[in-house]
Amino acid sequence: MSAGAVPVLYSNAWDWLPPFSSGADRDRLVDWSKCALFVPPRMKNETVRVIRSLSEQDVCEMQRCALAFWDEFASTRAGWLRG
Fold first, then answer.
1. pLDDT one-digit tens code per residue, 2-20
2. pLDDT by residue (tens digit) across 22-38?
3. How far apart are CA 66 and CA 72, in angstroms?
4. How many whole angstroms separate alpha carbon 35 and alpha carbon 37?
């Protein structure tokens, strides 16, 4: 993520509690739907196709979001404590 890589998660976006968010307000700190690509587990064999189906604009937005997350939270101990 420090280089703007987009995380690919094999999960349904609604069935996990991601870090730096809350159960009551899933987008309290980080809107993971904008920072990561969620591939349903049943589609894991189609990962390459799913990634290639993203528009260049979508990939750029996800990269910006992932990099912003890294800069604000993940790159320092203080960021982890802040989250």
1. 888 899 989 876 677 677 6
2. 455 555 577 888 889 99
3. 10
4. 7
